[in-house]
Amino acid sequence: MICSAKQAVVSIAGSDVFTRRRSPVPALASNRFSVAPSLSVPNCKSFGISTTKPLHITSIKGLGSFNQRPSIECQAYEADKSPIEIPEEQVRSEAAKKLKIGIYFATWWALNVVFNIYNKKVLNAFPYPWLTSTLSLACGSLMMLISWATRIAETPKTDLEFWKTLFPVAVAHTIGHVAATVSMSKVAVSFTHIIKSGEPAFSVLVSRFLLGETFPVPVYLSLLPIIGGCALAAVTELNFNMIGFMGAMISNLAFVFRNIFSKKGMKGKSVSGMNYYACLSMLSLLILTPFAIAVEGPQMWAAGFENAISQIGPQFIWWVAAQSIFYHLYNQVSYMSLDEISPLTFSIGNTMKRISVIVSSIIIFHTPVQPVNALGAAIAILGTFLYSQAKQ
């Protein structure tokens, strides 16, 4: 037990106060003396105080005089409830971490906005979403292979079991990626992302009816504005297209399964977020390529490429390269962010990302938006934010 006294400080063990009584030591000459007085604690016999933790006593009165019996005010508190001073190094470390996460988020949103702009430009001039999706995955795979070969990035240590657990994730990722690209080839970027903001509703429904998970009531209530807002935006969309709408819906469902498979398959795997997405891109590329050839084919691609070059010029090649590069970069940064933050913070960041994409695409492509349509989008995004809070 540690006693903090106004006139002096006495260090004694917890058992000494309550079980031992020491004899007073005679005073020495003048002011030079040492004291070990008998300390009795009145009215404290029934106190149940743990001796395993240090105890702070606010004051000891009468310790400086031998004519007075020392008295102890029994106003004590355990040490773990005393104010804790946070070291300056820890404060700096927390600040640096927050700055790092902020940079991740800003980079993630910026790269995503740039990707969506160039992706829409490419699809307007070259309406072949299967090849466009394939090129995005191929570019990312090539970038990571070069990074590993030049040792810019550490090569991941994988085995056959890793690729087995990654396969269902890659299938879901491939379907979600192609479906979203098909959607953006048919409707405005803003409309696709409004519908994709309904992904939490798919997540809850799939988890509830297929996995048997239950959620608190606020989570279910947060789905109402999500579903209602998406429905209002879809009904009031000026350039509504069923293929575009269904593509966004299929993308939502596929990405929900991707997240479920990823969570189950990657437990205990020591692969960083950047390398995990790189492996995911490569496997998705192998899955997608034969389907892209079967659905569209080289002849359609050649004719479409010549038409795009004649209309846009050589600048079209830069558009294709930019959308492919920025697709990989924004996904890679998002997975790197997930390594540093909680899923809740990530979902909030994803909601803010959609807002930035919707607003920027409306401004750049001069998308006509009715007030009711904007209201539906706002309600859906607000519901997504409420969902992330309710999940906490």
UniProtKB/TrEMBL annotation:
Gene that encodes the chain: GPT1
Record PANTHER family: SOLUTE CARRIER FAMILY 35
Span of domain Sugar phosphate transporter: 99-388
Gene Ontology molecular function: organophosphate ester transmembrane transporter activity; phosphoglycerate transmembrane transporter activity
Major location category of this protein: plastid
Protein name in UniProt: Glucose-6-phosphate translocator
Gene Ontology cellular-component annotations: chloroplast membrane
Residue stretches spanning the membrane: 101-118, 130-149, 217-236, 242-261, 273-292, 312-330
Organism for this UniProt entry: Paeonia ostii
Pfam family, one: TPT
Keyword Glycoprotein: no
Topology in membrane: Multi-pass membrane protein
Residue stretches in coiled coil: none
Keywords: Chloroplast, Membrane, Plastid, Transit peptide, Transmembrane, Transmembrane helix, Transport
Cellular compartment(s): Plastid, Chloroplast membrane
